[in-house]
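Entry, Tuesday afternoon. Goal for today is a structural model of the target with adenosine-5'-triphosphate bound, before we commit to ordering more compound. Inputs were pasted exactly as handed over by J.K., no edits. I checked the ligand SMILES twice against the vendor sheet because last time a stereocentre got dropped in transcription.
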Amino acid sequence: MASEVILQVINVSKSFGGLRVLNNVNLSVKKGNIHALIGPNGAGKTTLLNIISGLEKSDNGEIVFKGKSLRRLSSYKRARIGITRTFQNLELFSDMTVIENVMAGMYFKRESGFIASGLKLRKVRKDEKDIANRSLQILDFFELSHKKDEIAKNLPIGEQRLVELARAIASEPELILLDEPAAGLNIKETKTLGILIQKIRQDMGITVLLIDHDMELVMKICDFITVLNFGEVIAEGEPIVIQKDPKVITAYLGEEF
Amino acid sequence: MTLLLQFIFSGLTTGSVYALVGIGFNIVYNSTSIINLAQGEFVVIGGLMMWFFFVGLKLPFLVSFTLTLAVAGLVGFLMERLTIRPLIKKGDLLLMIMVTIAVSILIRGLLMFKFGKDPYTYPPFTVGEPIVFLGAVISQQTLWVIGITCICIAILYLFFNKTMTGRAMKACSLDIKAARLMGINVSQIVMLSFIISAVIGAVGGIAITPISLMEYDKGAMLSVKGFCAAIMGGLGRGRGAVVGGFTLGILESLTAGYIHSGLKDAVALFIMLFILFLRPAGIFGRSEIMRLRKF
Amino acid sequence: MLVIRNLDVYYDKLYTLKKVSLHVKQGEIVTLIGSNGAGKTTLLNAISGLIRPAGGSILFNDEEILGKTPESIVKMGISQVPEGRLIFKTLTVEENLLLGAYSYYSIKRKREVKEEMEKIYKLLPVLKHRKKQLAGTLSGGEQQMLAIGRALMAKPKLLLLDEPSMGLAPTVIHEIFKYIVELKNLFRLTVLLVEQNARSALKISNRGYVIETGRIINEGSAEDLLLNRDIQRAYLGRDLDSEVKI
Amino acid sequence: MKKDNALTIFVFSLLILIFPLIYKDTYLLTIGIFIGINALVAIGLTILMGYAGQISIGQAGFYGIGAYVSAILSLYFGLPVLLSMLLAIVVACIVSIFIAIPALRLKGHYLAVATLGFGEIVYLILNEWGPGGPSGFGDIPRISLFGYTFTTSYEYFYFVWSIVIIVMIFSFNLINSMTGKALKAIHGSETASATVGINIVKLKIKVFILSAFYASMAGAIYAHYVTFLSPSSFSLFYSVMVLMMVVVGGISNLWGGVVGAFIITILPELLRGFKELDVLVYGIILTIALLFVRKGFVPLILEGYRRWLQK
Amino acid sequence: CKEPYKIGAIFSVTGAASFLGEPEKNTVLMLVEQINKAGGIKGHPIEVIVEDSKSDETQAVLAAKKLIEKDKVLAIIGPSTTGESMAIIPIVTEAKVPMISCAAGASITLPVKERYWIFKTPQYDTSAVEAIYTYMKKKGIKKVGIITISTAFGDSGRKALLELAPKFGIQVVADERYGPKDTDMTAQLAKIKASGAEAVINWSVGPGQVIVTKNWYDLKMGIPLYQSHGWGSKRNIELAGKAAEGVIAPLGRIVVWDKLPDTHPQKPILKKYVTDYMARYKSEPGTFGGHAYDALMMVVEALKNVGPDRKKIRDYIETKIKKWPGTGGIFNMSPEDHCGLDMTSFEMVIVKNGDWEILK
Ligand SMILES: Nc1ncnc2c1ncn2[C@@H]1O[C@H](COP(=O)(O)OP(=O)(O)OP(=O)(O)O)[C@@H](O)[C@H]1O
Ligand SMILES: Nc1ncnc2c1ncn2[C@@H]1O[C@H](COP(=O)(O)OP(=O)(O)OP(=O)(O)O)[C@@H](O)[C@H]1O
Ligand SMILES: [Mg+2]
Ligand SMILES: [Mg+2]
């Protein structure tokens, strides 16, 4: 796989009040990799993801995506240049249908504006048709098309997670950030999810940065792992290396693994 | 100097009323997340019922006072049982707020029916000349109002931060299901909050009527100003409502004094907006909390 | 201790639980496994009184609790760690824990509450460090710990756990399970556990039930279930397991 | 627009067309005109609240700006009425941008108070500096189209309702488009909307402008129909009534604005018989309506209609 | 029983201006009963359909439409406020229905040419102001501070006060305002005190005038307080208590009817009206109830003489209401004046020992 770096986190620190949550974190994600970020609860993983996606500002340091600093870009602009994400505590548009959720993910791809939409010009109709079709394709990919008209919040958690993933994929990102996608899924579903993530990387060429506590999943699908503890990177490497790293075992994995 | 002081006293007088209404808002907000826009009507009920018992029926002061609070509490109780309770589990805040508006119209209709449209008043709690301080005058009744306001926030502070019932109330506004899983009787607690806020509103009404008279339709204005006060100070925070209320009152009287009395409300509101734009969660509100809750 | 007979629940005229019967003896840990949407959460909510079943009976210590309010059920000693945590986001960690003790709190028992809180802090030290922090700003895992701690604060006789391991780091799961077993051994705490991670759940359990589209389809001792081939394939992810292990 | 919406609007337009032909009563027509005017304001608020999830208790402000600016331009500056109406709308839209930018940082009750504050400020300014001050001013010219001046209630009725129908069509198109989905998305989760590339601020501002557009248009029509303006028509009370219309009609459906405007406008007329007690009865009816209809009348009607179809 | 004559009435029975609409409505209901009991107009009972405009112009428009279209009334009395009157003028003019407004604004009947169908019974605000200023001139007061309520009532008073001051050699040194529901006016009064004014004039109705009086008293301003003609209700004296002592106001004779000489042409009417009203409603009709009295009686008199014809009613009122004693004064209508009253319809009255006393 190519070894070009797509995302670089350089010296990022972050405090809340007096609490230092991230401390000079450095991290590089290679294009085409599935990269995992693991660590104990409260280590700062979600915070780092928030900083990358622009929901939170870092105190210092820099995020570089495809060679460009993201400092001045607000969240929605980062999405537009190719970084989307899912959330640890689901953030679905819960009163919208499944397909509407996915279509919303493509919002910025449409070409027609506010007034044109109200007047329903021909190009608007075409635009919308395209978007609806593409959304259906994506739902097909996740085997969710039979539920396209259900209200999102009525789905079981597992499927909600998939819808969120589909929504993130819809905007055709280059990098997708997944925050505990397997939480609340049973082993079977987790396995399907693993396969899906691999397919996303394979078929769509999307780089994945993933957080999860499900070690079976992480060890199985990831190319590279970064371990965070108390806001600092304590280990980095391939799964086999990390599994055996004593620091990681005491801080995170426990003896059993 | 005297003039400035006089303006401030005047602001304190009006501000304390806003503060009391604002506190009432906070209590209900803290247990339900809704703004009870009938809060101003409780103040009116306080003033008018006090007149009814004290002047109309010529009962002794304390008896009238107690009876008035009882009536207000009863109205709060009925309002909660009949209108809020059927809706609260659905959690549609907007609907509940609209219902409080409808109830306020209803209460106003009732009060008009009973008391007509005339203003009412009765003698101040303590008779005597107004107090002169550095040339500025402040009436004794105003001191009463301010004192009562202070006592109310002190009690409420202790209640919400030191007692389990207070905490339980806050829990109810956050997540009804979870609150029930803690063993909290949500329906009772919400009822309690309506009663307390009604009683506090009525206390305010009893205290201000000698200063500012009371008529059946004063409630809407009080609700609006109290709402502004509560928001300006930061919703849910007792001292927020008080600081908000006094700020609003003093802003109004300073504008009236130094800028233009015709625009005093406009200027005060404008400054309120400005404060909100600087501090979207109000003076004492925490933006973290704002981020964590929808309302 | 808990006996459920022929419980029926429906949402919108569709059966979610159909004639479910199960029991949990005092001092037992019983696991409920089943796929997404099988009705596990619904069952726990029915026990807690959060939803009204259409028929059947739920006996707790030989007393019918079906139809009682959640408040009174909690007071009888049943406490739940709900799905989705449902912590009070804008209250502090400490306030959340205190509210856990709401059902028996009184001035006189203040000390008891304090002691209980210390125990929770010892089990989950993170919470102690964060006690003045707003619960909603905790990390996902920390919130899960708080939800568990809060339920334990109630000093329940019967603890209902709905996916307690969600979002928790492996070491923490381990700690919590260990603690629950300890409580069971020391105080004969009874536990009904719903868990996606069925294997580790069954490991600490005495017995288990398998629920599928609202019906109990299998039950037995934990060991039996762990060894059952169908169950292994469906819920324990045996084949996945073999692929991963290197 | 979806097919059933198109059909409903078509049937509705027919009804509007024939109504004045059957009822030749200008009292009813006048009520109809006010319903139409209120409906315009309510539709704007329905989009703002029901779809974008932004509360506003300040629509009277835009309504007032539309009315006053248009009246002043045509009366004192002698501009043609249509031009002054247009300019009034432009002014209201510009004002709305200045309000929206800071206000939309706020949410929930805070946003409610900020918009309330805005509405009150407009009212107080009209009261202080508007022509005639609190007493108001009259003799505002009537609407004229291509040299033809509208004088009768018929003309105003058709004029108002044609605009309502155009506005409905535009609004339906809008909310069924991608823009509508983005609005609902913002309502659902702002964080998530941002991370899928929706420019929340810009979109919110646009809807805010749209609602100001509708409200000021309604205000301008009001001014040139009644030909007399005083600030009291643009007080907080009006904002609250519009809010009530939206909630009573049903916040989640555009028709809610129209139905709500109908109910809230006509209710006081029906209650004229109660004389003294009308406030009380009004309060009781509102309370009961809210308690029992909850989601608003439109969803209730739709539900009934669906049941009826199934039979 | 013959067919009734229908007359429409639009009053602000509720809302901000209910202080006007309430006594007006009461008056009309009482009069209708009396007239019908006395046999009506040549055997025709009269029927007055009272609509509540809720102090709102839109509602007034609807009410006017209803009265004209549905009830086909012969004439309309009211509305109570200038704004509502202005709002319905185009409608009644178009429908050619005579209207006698109960609001004071000059623009209601001016320019008379355009207000062909419109009359009004209240005195102009300017008349009340003239009465005050004339009295002040006599007392040698040169500088006044004015404080007015920010409603139409206060505003038109304010305009008149500012406009007429130079004519009387009076200087307005402070011009303050307050809202209809304000609870404290100390700040404004303190400012007036500091401005060196020799008298305060408050122009308002409702609780505001009592609060101003109390604040004026508490501040010990040391200068006299004048109120508008809205002050004429005993309740105000009761509410303000001892603070009201010494307050001066131009009031219609209706308030001090019992202190008028028996020879005064208004006295019999006032006596009957006030005593009947008090007996029935346990409160005073005040100046405002009187406006409705005058309006209705004009229509009734016209009906008596010309019968049920809108145009004839109008013509009768314009040309035949001369030296006509009403509650508000002696009316002299003419094609140039559709109001017919001037400042002589007011008396300057001071509060002494909790009662009114006419100042000479
Ligand atoms: N607004 C805040 N104020 C104070 N502390 C905060 C705030 N937000 C997060 N924290 C703290 O920062 C730490 C890091 O949180 P973060 O959500 O990044 O953890 P995480 O690694 O994602 O953990 P988990 O695996 O449990 O999800 C936590 O200890 C949390 O309590
Ligand atoms: N409020 C509701 N209204 C309608 N249907 C519901 C509701 N809650 C749950 N259901 C349905 O009831 C069924 C059982 O849901 P339940 O939440 O009990 O499943 P679960 O076994 O806990 O699943 P999970 O593993 O996803 O937590 C599901 O099909 C779900 O869609
Ligand atoms: Mg996390
Ligand atoms: Mg579940």
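The longest strand of chain C covers residues 14-24.
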